[in-house]
Specification:
The chain is an all-alpha fold and about 210 residues long. It is built from nine helices and no strands. The longest helix is centred in the C-terminal third of the chain and has 63 residues.
Length: about 210
């Protein structure tokens, strides 16, 4: 491994740095974007139970807001639960945008790494080829081993750059899709809660 890094020249170091950052982001997002952490199941049912037995006070709403991103979105609707459906939905959408931004954290960096790693590799290859031609100019094509060494040096950086870029791009796409799924699921849960709350209120109003 060290031999390869030495053979690849100076541009191997930024490529290695990119790979370390990419691995850290991938591990962190896998940990952070778990369903149980973002949108715990049965949260809406629990809120509904609290409302039914009259336990839904400011303290409960504050705890809910701090519990998870879905809790934060539901709390935004619950704060306005005495108002109309539209006002509840507006509060939910506003906080939903903020939550979506949080879930996408670091994904732009991962996308950037996926874009620049192959370019760094290519630059390493170009520099390597310049070195090869410099050797040819100075010594002619007398010693093929010198040329093959230079060419293999040049190609190592491109291979390294692509090895970082391909998984980075795959995970970037995967996490983008995951975030979209979670956001849609959370919006649906929140809208379900709005309808349930208004159903209860209308029901009580008829009595």
């Amino acid at each position: 491994m060290l031999e390869l890094i030495k053979a690849g020249g100076l541009l191997m170091w930024p490529i290695i740095l990119c790979s370390i950052i990419a691995m850290a982001i991938i591990a962190e997002r896998f940990w952070s974007l778990r369903q149980s952490k973002i949108a715990p199941r049965n949260l809406v049912a629990r809120v509904w139970q609290w409302e039914k037995v009259g336990h839904l006070d400011a303290k409960r709403i504050q705890d809910l807001r701090e519990s998870s991103p879905l809790g934060m979105i539901l709390a935004a609707g619950l704060v306005n639960r005495k108002h109309s459906r539209e006002i509840m939905k507006e509060g939910i959408e506003e906080v939903g945008r903020h939550v979506a931004h949080e879930l996408e954290r670091f994904l732009n960096t991962l996308g950037t790494i996926a874009s620049i790693s192959p370019l760094l590799g290519l630059l390493g290859t170009v520099i390597g080829m310049i070195k090869v031609f410099t050797v040819i100019t100075a010594h002619g094509v007398g010693d093929p081993s010198v040329l093959s060494e230079g060419i293999s040096e040049a190609l190592i950086t491109t291979a390294a750059g692509l090895s970082v870029a391909i998984p980075s791009l795959m995970f970037h796409r995967y996490f983008r899709g995951r975030v979209d799924e979670l956001i849609i699921a959370m919006e649906q849960e929140a809208l379900k809660m709005v309808e349930v709350m208004h159903g209860i209120r209308e029901h009580e109003g008829h009595h």
